[in-house]
UniProtKB/TrEMBL annotation:
Keyword check for Oxidoreductase: yes
GO MF annotation: an example: oxidoreductase activity
UniProt keyword annotations, A-Z: Oxidoreductase
Top-level taxon of the source organism: Bacteria
Positions of the GFO/IDH/MocA-like oxidoreductase domain: 132-247
Protein name: Putative dehydrogenase
Length: 329
């Protein structure tokens, strides 16, 4: 049975990793041995929930707790240093997204994993969705003809239960909505369509982190228009427009998508697909047993992080006419 140590007892651990760890323990595949978080009440709450787990006073103590794998779910600023420290003592690592604060930092982590001969995986849970794999298959078979464009909107009024204002600090999180949702969205687009060309990027940051971002990408002859938001309430959708039809998908739907052909629409319900939490458990299983992964498994999405870096490097100020009269790009 794989012995796991958890670093970080915040919202993602409480909501998703704790149930996933419990499911793997019930299946006899893995067990949580120890936890660490500098927020002692949060660590104690996790310890109470997953009884019998060792509560560690430091990350070094966690690494010395007789582990096989470290689950890094700490704030993004800590991901690289904690991952590198775990790899240096011979442990495998599963790191929550974003893997790192930059593409270069992620590449250094990958190089360290290769040098150590230990697995490094990233929490890109949507790769486990049957709906995501079905979209890949439909696009590969050109079920909607030649791809013309992709329209993406994801986000909404921010409601993630953060524990401090540090979540909105560029120094702590590496950015705003683009750094938060971009790893998922860009990783999916790259997995479906290949390497993109950045055409334009704009956001509304005015000295802080962005709440809204707009990115246009080129995938050969097709264009992808991506809008990410932390304050705009509208339906979350990925829409693929082809020469003879369209595919529409709502993020977080693991087993359903819509196919439009010859003016007719039909919902495709995929058999055998579980709920979102089942996908979270599956991604952790793919981390502890790499051969259990499907498609790209949980290999880190370094290309998505490099694309985010490029967006920030080439960013323009998003037009906000209620502030600047529409003078920005």
């Amino acid at each position: 049975m794989i012995r796991i140590g958890l670093s970080g007892c915040g919202a993602v651990s409480a909501r998703y990793y704790a149930p996933a760890l419990a499911a793997l323990a019930a299946a006899g595949e893995a067990r949580l041995v120890a936890v660490f978080d500098p927020d002692v009440p949060a660590m104690q709450a996790m310890g109470d929930r997953l009884q019998g787990r060792r509560l560690c006073a430091s990350y070094d103590e966690l690494l010395a707790a007789g582990l096989d794998l470290v689950l890094v779910a700490s704030p993004p600023r800590r991901h690289a240093e904690q991952t590198l420290a775990a790899l240096a003592v011979g442990l495998a690592v599963h790191c929550e997204k974003p893997l790192a604060m930059s593409g270069d930092e992620a590449a250094a982590m990958m190089a360290a994993a290769t040098a150590a001969g230990r697995p490094l995986t990233e929490g890109l849970v949507r790769r486990q969705f049957p709906s995501v794999r079905a979209i890949a298959d439909l696009l590969r078979r050109q079920a909607i003809g030649d791809l013309i464009s992709v329209d993406v909107f994801e986000g909404g009024p921010f409601d993630w239960p953060v524990s401090s204002q540090r979540y909105f600090s560029r120094a702590e999180s590496g950015g705003g909505v683009l750094r938060d949702l971009g790893p998922h969205v860009f990783d999916l687009l790259i997995g479906w369509l290949g390497e993109p060309q950045l055409i334009s990027a704009a956001d509304d940051a005015r000295g802080g982190v962005e709440a809204n971002a707009r990115v246009e990408l080129g995938f050969g002859a097709a264009r992808a228009n991506v809008r990410l938001s932390r304050d705009w309430a509208r339906p979350n959708r990925f829409v693929f427009n082809g020469s003879s039809g369209a595919i529409a998908w709502t993020p977080y739907e693991t087993n359903r998508l819509e196919l439009r052909l010859e003016g007719q629409s039909a919902a495709l319900i995929l058999e055998g697909a579980g709920e979102f939490q089942d996908a979270f458990t599956a991604q952790l299983r793919a981390a502890i047993v790499p051969s259990s992964g499907v498609g790209r498994g949980q290999a880190p999405g370094v290309e998505a992080l490099r694309l985010i870096d490029l967006c920030y490097a080439r960013r323009q100020q998003m037009a906000e006419p209620w502030i600047d009269g529409g003078r920005a790009a």
